Each structure stands twice: as C-alpha cells, then as structure tokens.
Amino acid sequence: TITITGSPLAKITTFTLSVTALPLQTLTCSPSTQTVQTNSSATLTAAGGTGTYSWSAPGGNPASGSGASFSTSYVTAGAYTVTTTSGTQSAVCTVSVTVLPPPPGDTSPPSISLTAPANGSTISGAVIVSANASDDVGVVGVQFKLDGSNIGVEDTSSPYSIFWDSTVVANGSHALTAVARDAAGNIGTAPTVSISVFNGTAPLFTGRILAFGSREALVKNLQQFLIAQGILALGNDTGYFGPLTRYAVIIFQQRYAIHSTGIMGPLTAAKIDQLRGSTPPTGATFTVPLYLGVRNSQVVNLQLFLIQRGILAAGNNTGYFGPLTEAAVRTFQCQQSIVCSGDRYSTGWGVVGAKTRGALNVF
Q1: pLDDT at 282 over 50
Q2: Contact criterion met (CB below 8 Å) for 233 and 251
Q3: 6 band by pLDDT with thresholds 50, 70 and 90
Q4: Beta-strand pair 139-146/172-182
Q5: How confident is the model at residue 93, as a pLDDT?
Q6: Backbone phi and psi for residue 83, each to the nearest 5 degrees, phi listed first
Q7: Is 1 exposed, middle or buried (CB count within 10 Å of its CB: 0-12, 13-18, 19+)?
Q8: Per-residue pLDDT tens for 128-154?
Q9: Rounded to whole angstroms, how far apart are CA atoms 141 and 154?
Q10: One-character DSSP codes across 323-358
C-alpha cells in the first residue's frame, strides 16, 4: 500500500494505491515418464513458468530445443532425463528407451513342383529333370534328389533343371523329388514323382553258340527268352537244347530274316540281346484300358513288351498309343486267340481291355 500526503494550503489530497503481485505458475514437464523404442520419438510438453521454454536432452537427437513442445529420440536402450527450464524454474521428465524388436522373419517356405519327367513315366539314358519354384521373397537354389540322394549340384538360377544320366542307377522304380530354399533358409519340397528306369541289360548271348544237344544254364536262359516271345511253350525251360528248342530258334530266325539253321549263332545271339535290351521293367503290370490316343507310362510298358515279342518295331516305346501300337496290339490279340476281327468299337480289336490285360499280365 502506498500513501501520499500533501499540505492543505497546496490543496494536495492524500490517497492510497494498493498493488498485488500475482504468484508465479509452477513449471511442469509431461508426461513425467514415457517408454519408447530405439530410434522412435519421445514428445514432451512444458507448461507454467514464464511461458518461454528451453530443453536439454543429453544423449538425445536432438539434444536441445525450445518451445512448449519438444521431441527427441535415442539409438541406445536405457533411462534418460530430459530437463526443461523457464525463467528460474526447471522441470524434469524421464524417458525409458527399449530396444526395437527385429521385424518378423521370413518363415514361408518356397513352393516347388517337378515338371519333368512325368509321374509314372519310364525313362532311359540321359534325361532332363526340371522343376518350377517360387517364393514370396526369392528362391536361391533348387536341389534335385533321387531316392533321397542329391543329383548333381544345386541349381541356383531359373529355369531350374539338370541333365541326368539314368544309366548310373539300377533299373526299376525310383523316387524323384526336388528341394527349393530361400534366403532365409526356408525349405520347400516337391511332391515325389515315381519313375521307372530301364536301360536294357548287359549282353548275355553275344559271343556264344548254342546248338542241338547243348546242355547248360545259358540254354535255360535262351528257352526262357523264347517262351517270353511266345515261340516256345511254357515249361520247356529245361536247360537242354532239344528238338523243341531247335524248332523255336528256327521260328525266331524266320521272324527276323536270319538264316534259319536252328543254331544260335552270332547273328541270332546279337538279335536276342538287342531285344532283351528292350524288355520292360520287371513287374510291369497293366491295370487300365489302353487304346488309340492314350498317353501314359503303361503304354510305354505295353510298347516295350510288344517290341520284345517282335510285334512292334524297336524305338516305338514313346508312351503314346498310336496307329502302330494299335496294329501291334491286334497282332498280339490274334496270336493269343483273344479277338482277331472287327474293330476297336464293336469287338475291342486293338484295344487293351480286360481280356488282353489278363494275357499281358501272364508274361
């Protein structure tokens, strides 16, 4: 309170002036505590004080600033103190920084399927094994496998394929697959494809001569071959080269335009070994109807059987049932007294139906 007094003669009036000082507002920093991840911003707000603010954030980016709002970030996990000042006041906020978790890893395996050879096919010699593979990030390699063992080295570039020599494995049924991997190490496996490998057999008769009166194991092999050819009756594989065997050899020689002596000489032996090399895989059976236009592995086995019997020319084991195969089937049906007239529609002549399959499966 201020009082002013004057003299009456001076006509001065006394009056009182009251001045009240407002209290200074307390400076605050909010939120008082907060948790952020590494490299993520922590935003703080100042209030109170004089209305003018400065900030100090040791270890932060940025480490200082001004204004009512301030943001900073940290690259290392830990507890940090941020201070704001206004006039003579200061306030403190605490920032707790946690490590930023890594992004979710790639856990999706590649997708892969074999494109060649086809399931159920019969192969020989060198073939191309190929596959299609894809991945949400990228395929880095495809490894082909036969019966669980690697075929060659991993193919690291698309299109994925390998040139494989089937002669290095035994004749018979084999399981083929492929494994694809991506950069994250995820593995995808192709559905298994079943294939039959048939690369013929080693010469058995070449260089040998068998004639009437011969008695040895090789004669039995010859007789079994002639039985399979439909030339010698079942049960005559005695190991003795008698008149029935001699007559069967003559028929075989006539069939292939070889001088008909009844003796298994060099030309006859070579022809027998050639046909043995076209014998279908052991255990080949026929379970479905086969007819003109069909293409599958059983057609291959049928053609190999017909080639073995000299009904179909060598090299026609394509897997496609065409006119040549149909004609050979008709010949076989006539030989076996199944049907020998009509057509494929009225009598089934040229169609591998139930009766013909039964006859084929006997051999």
Answers
A1: no
A2: no
A3: low
A4: antiparallel
A5: 85
A6: -115, 135
A7: exposed
A8: 899 999 999 899 999 999 999 999 899
A9: 6
A10: HHHHHHHHHHHHHTTS--SS-TTTT-TT-B-HHHHH
User: Residue 139's beta-bridge partner residues?
Assistant: 182
Q: Are 142 and 111 in contact (CB under 8 A)?
A: no
Pick the CATH number of 111-197 from 3.50.50.60, 2.60.40.10, 1.20.1050.10, 1.10.510.10: 2.60.40.10
The CATH code of the domain at 28-98 is 2.60.40.10
The yes-or-no answer to whether 28-98 and 111-197 have a common fold is yes
User: Which are the contacts of 7, defined by CB distance < 8 A and separation ≥ 6?
Assistant: none
Residue ranges covered by each domain of the chain: 28-98, 111-197, 217-272, 297-362
- Confidence label for 172 from pLDDT (cuts 50, 70 and 90): confident
Per residue in 11-23, pLDDT tens?
Answer: 555 656 666 656 6
Comparing CA positions, the residue from 291, 295, 243, 261 lying closest to residue 121 is 295
Length of the chain: 363
Question: Positive or negative CA dihedral for 324, 325, 329, 331?
Answer: positive
Mean pLDDT of 261-279: 83
